[in-house]
Amino acid sequence: MKKIGAAVLAAAAIAVSVTGTAQAEYNPRCASGVTQIGSTLYLEQGGENVASVKQFKGCGKNWAYIYVWDSWLAGHKESYWLSAGIRTRISESSVDYVKAQNRQELWSSGADTLSECTQAGGAIWNDTTITVGNWTEERC
To answer: Buried-most residue among 18, 32, 71, 96 (CB within 10 A)?
Structure first.
């Protein structure tokens, strides 16, 4: 009985580790794949998560990624913009900022900054007003 219980617990642990891990986002500009660095930043509006921002490395570059949650999209009918970019400690401004209109996800263009301290930023905005946006923790 103990062997069966241990086997069930082991199988459950494997299932949790497989199903509890988010699948890696696919970056169309880096076919060999990217790896997330640092923690996911959750953008909140009115006490609810509306998007997530992540920083990745791959193909010799740093990448910013923003993903807008389905729940925000369902309640938001107006046109909006997404932006994503990487900034360095030295520049304090985005070094590969990109924007796109009415998209659910957006990748930055990739910054040649692997040897620098960087942050990934993401924002949702309309016209000139940022609805919500912020920068991830710094990674060196």
So the answer is: 96
